[in-house]
Amino acid sequence: MQTNANVSAVTAYDASSTAPAAIDVNETQNRQDTDQVARYRLVIEEGPRTGSFIYKTMDRVTGEVVKQFPREQVVDMMNKPDYSAGAVIDTRA
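Above: the chain sequence. Below: its structure as tokens.
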């Protein structure tokens, strides 16, 4: 043992009183994450052509379309009479 060691009193804290607060923070974060995920819904609509479908991710709160597949431009092309699957790019010279 060292003869020049300094020994002083320290304040002790009860760690068990802070544990529930940590759990509440995690639980609150999980609830917020769940609410955020539950805000969106998938809507599947029949497309303009037989056998085609449009998939939309919609915000339940605002009604806004967040994502859509196929994009609106492709759906517009599908409405044209000369459209066929795979005809998005014209490779003829």
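Residues 15-78 form one domain.
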